[in-house]
Amino acid sequence: MQDRIDTTGARALHVSRATRTTRIAMAALAAAVLVMAAAPWWAGRADLRLFGEIFLYMSLATLWNLLAGYAGLVSVGQQAFVGLGGYAFFAGTLILGLNPWAALPLAALAGAVVAAPVAVLIFRLRGAYFAIGTWVVAEMARLIFAQVGPLGGGSGTSLSPAIVKGLAEGRDAREAAIYWLSLGLCALVIGAALGLLRSRRGVALTAIRDNELAARSLGIDVWRAKFGVYVLTGALTALAGALIFLQKLRISPDAAFSVNDWTAIVIFITVIGGIGTLEGPILGTLVYFALRETLADLGPVYLIALGAAAILIMLKAPRGLWGLIRARTGADLFPLSRRVRGLSRKGA
Questions:
Q1: Which pairing describes strands 11-16 and 2-6: parallel, antiparallel, or unpaired?
Q2: Distance, CA of 312 to CA of 318 (rounded, Å)
Q3: CA gap 60, 191 in Å, rounded
Q4: What's the DSSP call for residue 340?
Q5: Nearest to 20 by CA among 337, 331, 313
Q6: What CA dihedral angle connects 199, 200, 203 and 208, to 10 degrees?
Q7: Do the Cβ atoms of 67 and 281 come closer than 8 Å?
Q8: How many angstroms separate the CA atoms of 207 and 53, rounded?
Q9: How far apart are CA 48 and CA 287, in angstroms?
């Protein structure tokens, strides 16, 4: 979006979101997506699974960042929607007999349908009480699904070979399909976040992030803005959960509603990358997986190293790695902020 505002003097104002840096970054991102889309032709199965996992965690981190970094909703219970999406997918295929391609949208729909009443309930809570409330909801969901006999109860269940073959014929084709779904979801989540933050609702969210009281005094419907983001993230987090357990081919209550796997790691990624920025979760995911792949063979030392890295980054860069980069360079990769520049009358 670009605007030129004429003035009575010798200069005009040029208002634009895009800069040379953002144009280069968007071109590089588009090229990277094309290269990664071709990964099934140049990467092995293990690499595809790793790339798919990276894209799914990047999606989860971006969604959590929308909640905590912009809407001020610090949730420690997003594993509720990961597990819900996984179980909705398994229920759709195993109980309803749906094709896997049809069961995936069902997972997203289940996430949105459940998020709406949950939001009405837990939005009554504030601060630490809200965070605890989201965790309680996730634990309730875990206990409920542990009682569902057709889905294996507490021990969980697996997808049948016939269902797996319904996704694609041949193992290589199935691995590629799951990988493309993970890449597509990541692109969808980042694109949706970018579109949302560039819209009027995004401006409202940014105002809420900076000062909720001031945003309310300016006429912003804070509850409605938060409700919309919570339902959106619930739907897309559930879709991510469906893809996670489609990749695993098995689900159980403890794995589906693991606070460590689907919330603690996501918070770690977002905080070290830079909360309240669109670039932060992307950078944080890459850093986390670089540390994991480098240090995983060290056993318990791996977890100590992760904790030490998180503490060091929070001490040296309270706004995360991207916040540190932005403070030193002033660069943004995504065209979100408007910038005003003066132009000469001839240039205008």
A1: antiparallel
A2: 9
A3: 14
A4: E
A5: 331
A6: -130
A7: no
A8: 33
A9: 18
Residue 263: which of 63, 110, 111, 69 has the closest Cα?
A: 63
Q: Among 75, 80, 134, 135, which residue's Cα sits nearest to residue 111?
A: 80
The CA-based dihedral angle spanning residues 98, 154, 57, 277, taken in that order and rounded to the nearest 10 degrees: 110
> DSSP class of residue 260?
I
Whole-number Å distance between alpha carbons of 272 and 146:
34
Q: Is 97 in contact with 163 (CB distance < 8 Å)?
A: no
0.85 exceeded by the pTM?
yes
Q: Give the model confidence (pLDDT) of 130-166 as tens digits.
A: 999 999 999 999 999 999 999 999 999 999 888 888 8
Q: Say what the alpha-carbon torsion angle 253, 256, 257, 258 is, to the nearest 10 degrees.
A: 110
> Between helices 300-316 and 279-295, what is the axis angle to 10°?
150
- Residues 305-323: pLDDT tens digits? 888 888 888 888 888 999 9
| Percent of the residues in the chain that have a pLDDT greater than 90, as a whole number | 66
Nearest CA among 64, 86, 75, 72 for reference residue 135: 75
